[in-house]
Design brief:
447 residues; alpha/beta; 5-stranded mixed β-barrel
Length: 447
């Protein structure tokens, strides 16, 4: 008589917020899968649902509460983790039946909560089988051809509008050899593009600066430039996110000119007016940023700079805002996102005087988006007629494909829409000829 093996418990996951949260979700699911749990793509098939929350803005907290409520309504057995988990009372007041609540990157506590909610039944047929190591069975929530690579946790800055240090703590850098080992495994599994993320990538290693590690017969220092150089030897594309414009960042630009690292920097400037930056308590707010951008472009003409800005910060005057618009005219950033200032519980900015009315925020938001859209459109128009390398994300049924140039990060930047590309596959890196452009995207054909 055949022995029927027990079915493992199934875990569902809802992951909200930034790519750093997505990496946390991947690690949690990888650990659970290595222990024998199965993954469920929907609420109905899950024995327990994990909701990895965002707690950076009040609007993000509300989105997290809505996701928790939906999971409870659809399934009923819910564990909450992530940044919003620090406000357990708020969650319990709304949803008293939540099984457990943990904070950001508290992997062990999440796994323990899953053990309690949906324990795995022991089987002599399964428990005697050797399992692969966790790092050899990593579960990804992104497409096979690109992966987020988190190099540190936490942040040492104390920006007035931000509560990340309260949620995730001070900077804790990972060992460079551990990062490089993970990168090699991701590439071996099919990753073509590594997206390097942290709260402050340019600060990587300052807490372990005296701890170089042996790697492939040489020592690698825990510093952004050294790490970027080694990553560039491992992956076809390496993209750097969340970099502050400190002077030492200059050293990574030649790596871009050499082709080791993508000519792309994601720099969260947040504003340009000195008075606003001072109230924000922002680092690297000197007057040399524009000169630094000019020097970077002289070394690597194709470098793409993306950034985000906050409009309507307390005390922002019309003169401050106009200063920002004029700065953008001179900076000519390639990609820009903007946010209306939003109070966050626990942030120092909430108590600042001269709060900006919502109507003024909306008007300024519309103006900055119009300004940056015009700059983007002009920059993309200048690429018409050029040949550019593109990584393919999707291939359609009618011969079209969608990809990204080196100036485009997934989800946040533009796309390259291709014709006559049905022979390509996701993850292919191909040269294309740019035929047209609009405010955000390029239109091209394989070269």
């Amino acid at each position: 008589m055949a022995t029927v093996l027990p079915s493992p418990p199934r875990v569902g996951m809802v992951s909200l917020g930034c790519p750093k949260n997505l990496v946390d979700s991947e690690r949690i699911l990888t650990r659970l899968r290595a222990e024998g749990y199965a993954m469920s793509p929907d609420y109905a098939g899950a024995d327990v649902v994990l909701v990895n929350t965002c707690g950076f803005l009040d609007s993000a907290k509300e989105e997290s509460l809505e996701a928790i409520g939906e999971a409870i309504a659809e399934n009923g057995r819910v564990i909450v983790t992530g940044c919003f988990g620090k406000e357990a009372k708020t969650i319990r007041d709304r949803f008293p039946n939540v099984l457990a609540i943990t904070g950001a990157h508290e992997y062990e506590q999440v796994v323990d909560a899953v053990h309690a909610a949906a324990p795995i039944g022991r089987s002599p047929y399964l428990d005697l089988m050797p399992g692969a190591a966790v790092e050899d069975t990593d579960l990804k929530l992104t497409p096979r051809h690109y992966s987020y690579l988190k190099i540190s946790e936490g942040c040492n800055h104390r920006c007035a509008f931000c509560i990340i240090p309260q949620l995730r703590g001070d900077l804790v850098s990972r060992r460079p050899d551990a990062i490089l080992r993970e990168a090699e495994k991701l590439v071996a599994a099919g990753t073509k593009e590594l997206l390097v993320i942290s709260q402050d990538t340019s600060a990587y290693g300052i807490d372990i600066r005296r701890e170089p590690r042996a790697w492939r017969g040489r020592e690698v220092a825990p510093a952004m430039t050294d790490l970027a150089r080694e990553l560039g030897r491992i992956a076809p594309w390496v993209r750097l996110h969340y970099v502050y414009p400190y002077p030492h960042v200059d050293a990574v630009i030649p790596l871009m000119a050499e082709g080791l690292v993508l000519p792309y920097l994601d720099i969260p400037f947040q504003h340009a007016a000195p008075a606003v930056l001072k109230r924000m308590k922002r680092p690297a707010n000197d007057a040399k940023v524009l000169e630094r951008l000019r020097k970077w472009r002289a070394v690597c003409p194709d470098i793409a700079i993306r950034s985000t800005f906050v409009v309507g910060f307390p005390g922002e005057t019309e003169a401050d805002f106009q200063y920002l618009l004029d700065w953008l005219d001179e900076a000519q950033l390639d990609r820009v996102g903007a946010f209306r200032f939003e109070p966050v519980a626990g942030a120092a900015a909430n108590t600042l005087p001269d709060q900006v009315p919502e109507t003024v925020k909306e008007e300024r938001y519309a103006r900055i988006m119009a300004k940056t859209a015009a700059i983007s459109a002009a920059k993309l128009q200048a690429k018409i007629g050029r040949a550019l390398p593109v990584i393919i994300d999707e291939v359609g049924d009618e011969g079209g494909a969608t990809g990204r140039s080196q100036a485009d990060a997934p989800e946040i930047d533009g796309q390259v829409l291709l014709r006559d590309a049905g022979h390509l596959r996701p993850g292919d890196i191909v040269n294309v000829h740019v035929e047209d452009a609009d405010e955000h995207d390029l239109f091209a054909a394989p070269a």
